[in-house]
Amino acid sequence: MPRIARTSTSFSSRSGPNLEAVHHAGSRGLAAWQCRSVVVHIELNQADLIDVETLASLCRLSVSHFTRAFRTTFGSAPYSYIVRKRVDSAKTMMATTDEPLSQIALACGFSDQAHFCNHFRRLVGCSPLEWRRRRQRESAAFRGSNSN
To answer: Per-residue pLDDT tens for 22-40?
Structure first.
């Protein structure tokens, strides 16, 4: 049975979810309509509590069957996928705003800044503050090199 290839799945309000990269491993993964429902729900409710029961009901599956099918389709557990999406959103916010990290953490669905920092460090390899400062330095260097 072929394994799935996982790439990023994103959502744009104009084009809908990008599910071209999701490959199903036989018939054990989620159907395309189920993938769309789950991805859209996660994107639209990212700042809120998202439980597996709700995602499973969107797909009309039991929690255990949904969890197995989700892992087969996306290559990770639903919670891991949600955390990764939240960290990606936080990176976008950190790069484009001057909001404090505590506000970004809450806006992206983390319970507090410490929870956000732990997940961020685990996924990115550095703290959010380090990442933001590095980004700002790179931006300033880029702007400086283009002004000549």
So the answer is: 544 456 899 999 999 999 9
* Other beta carbons less than 10 A from residue 57's beta carbon: 13
Indicate the DSSP class of residue 20: T
Phi/psi at 11 (5° precision): -130, 130
Q: Are 76 and 84 in contact (CB under 8 A)?
A: yes
Supply the pTM of this predicted model: 0.77
70-109 confidence digits (pLDDT tens): 999 999 999 999 999 999 999 999 999 999 999 999 999 9
* Domains within the chain, CATH numbers bracketed: 15-75 (no CATH), 82-146 (1.10.10.60)
CB 3: neighbour CB atoms within 10 A? 9
CA-to-CA dists, residue 102 to 90, 112, 117, 130, 142, angstroms: 11, 7, 10, 15, 28
